[in-house]
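[step 3/7] fold_predict: job queued, chain A
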Amino acid sequence: MSGKTKPEKTDKQIIDEFLKKVSEGEKNLKEYEKTLNSTKTMEFEKAYFEDMTFQPGSIAGNIFQIPSKEKNKTYFDIPGEGFDLSIKHYSFRFKELKDCSGMLDVKKKTVFLDPRDCNNYVILHEMTHAYDWMLDHCYPYPLRDILIIRLYDKLKTKIEALDKVLMLFSHYTYQYNVINGKEGDHSTLFYMKCLDLELRLGVPFGTISGFPPELRIKIIRKKPEPKGNEAGR
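[step 4/7] structure written:
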């Protein structure tokens, strides 16, 4: 018993099916763009960038406080006038890019993400760029320097040979950006924050920063100090 052979698709049918897939893909990207701009990036901000937005309780959350003369009150909060370091000021858009997975356009206040190579790590990478740029260009306070010092103080308890790691990164960054004339601004603060994110997420170092694998030295996570009766064992 021979089965019926399916008729070959016409050129028009092939083109129509292709256009339908493209249309569905574009629709899915647009829906994901909405999610990125409405909820996902704000969730990331709350979970992972409380320090770069100087939220209360973070490592840099007390810088707007001074001693108070009032009884039974230790500090008086001083909010920065017009202070608003939030990713909500940036829009996220999908766009095919050349030689990179993501790109921050500060003039358009837009983060472009390549849909062919986009994941949460790329989003966190570009968000770190955005906060770094805002700290460097938008506020007269020495917020950036304060954050560098406090991130360093936090990371030195968690990473062995942190100074060596930062020296290597600064040397690579200089070679990459200045000598080779490549675009991109990967500052020391940017890299320190990426180290912090990689530690918190438990992923290999370089996953978020994008530091080239061939130049990565072995970064060792410090073991937690023993507590209580465990000390001395």
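[step 5/7] annotate
The mean pLDDT is 78.
The first helix runs from residue 11 to 48.
exit 0
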